[in-house]
Design goal:
Strand content: 15-25%
Distance between the termini: 31 Å
Helix content: 25-40%
CATH architecture: 3-Layer(aba) Sandwich
Strand order of the largest sheet: 1-2-4-3-5-6-7-8
Largest sheet: 8 strands, mixed
Oligomer: single chain
CATH superfamily: Alpha/Beta hydrolase fold, catalytic domain
Order of helices and strands: EEEHEHEHEHHHHHEHEH
Radius of gyration: 18 Å
CATH topology: Rossmann fold
Number of domains: 1
Shape: globular
Structural class: alpha/beta
Number of helices: 10
Length: 303
């Protein structure tokens, strides 16, 4: 782990989730919960191949508390949930874990979700259900930043049956030059089996995306790597994605140059993470200014 990063345990309605946390020196501006993709773990957000890669270390330096959680079926919960959970159940477990985190206090202005790939599916599912759980003690959700997730797959159905198969390696990583030299040795400790229930839900995502996106009521930013091969993300696809978020006050769809699907482990990680925290700062400023300052949703041009 990077300096200042330590492991913690979150209680989630009878489940136990492992996580990593990094805290700023003073009171946090807000708390960022980082949610990893399929077949990865919380350590995805604390990459060790280069000092610039860790989201947790950077976020703490910028004044945020950052918590990277092992999703249900990963880390400490893998033995208890060997098949994982479907998205609805994961969202409920995550809400319980966040309520536990909130009871610890010191979260700042509220909560941002930063998610990657399958973790983005969970983040959208959670945000879509957020309005239905106003009485729960989870921190206020302020915004979503999601990378490596679209609506429509850019691959054949066979690839979805076993996303972690060796034949899909290029889809996960893109050009090897996008990563520091020690990445793949370090990544061995981050990879984990993808639970069966996650695999089973993959083909249903295009339909579920539309249902979830239309219920999200917080600002949203989606980022696609230049070498993203899992999802359609051309100009038409990006415009269509934006149109699905009918209730969100702000939607941005950005591109990250010189990056593969696993952006947060590559040379582009710092640039992507800084843009994510810049988006969170925009969200905090909009919140302080009030709803009258909110412009209509827009699509950001690709970088």
């Amino acid at each position: 782990m990077s300096p200042g990063v330590r492991p913690i345990v979150l209680q989630a309605g009878g489940r136990t989730l492992s996580a990593l946390v990094a805290r700023p020196d003073g009171p946090p501006r807000a708390t960022v919960l980082a949610v990893h993709g399929g077949g990865m773990s919380a350590g995805y957000f604390d990459g060790q191949a280069h000092p610039d890669v860790s989201l947790l270390a950077l976020g703490a330096r910028l004044g945020y508390t950052v918590v990277a959680v092992d999703r249900p079926g990963y880390g400490l919960s893998a033995a208890e949930l060997p098949s994982g959970q479907d998205l609805a159940a994961q969202a409920a477990t995550l809400r319980a874990a966040l309520a536990h985190l909130g009871r610890r206090g010191g979260l700042g202005a509220g909560l941002f979700l930063l998610a990657h790939s399958f973790g983005g599916k969970l983040a959208l599912t959670y945000a879509a259900s957020d309005a239905d759980a106003p009485g729960e003690a989870a921190p206020e959700l302020l915004g979503l930043d999601i990378s490596g997730l679209g609506r429509d797959y850019a691959t054949e159905p066979e690839a979805l049956a076993d996303p972690l198969a060796q034949r899909n390696s290029k889809r996960h990583w893109g050009p090897l030059r996008c990563y520091p030299p020690d990445t793949f040795r370090q990544a061995r400790g981050l990879v984990a089996p993808m639970p069966e229930r996650e695999r089973a839900e993959a083909a249903q995502w295009p339909r579920r995306f539309a249902a979830a996106a239309g219920r999200v009521r917080v600002p949203v930013r989606l980022t696609f790597a230049e070498h993203e091969f899992w999802w359609h993300h051309d100009e038409e696809a990006r415009a269509d994605l934006t149109a699905q978020f009918t209730r969100a006050p702000l939607v941005r769809v950005d591109g990250q140059p010189d990056a593969g699907h696993n952006i947060s482990l590559g040379w582009a990680a710092r640039a992507y993470h800084l843009r994510a925290f810049g988006f969170f700062e925009d969200c905090l400023a909009r919140r302080a200014a009030g709803p009258a300052a909110a412009p209509a949703p827009a699509v950001a041009a690709a970088c």
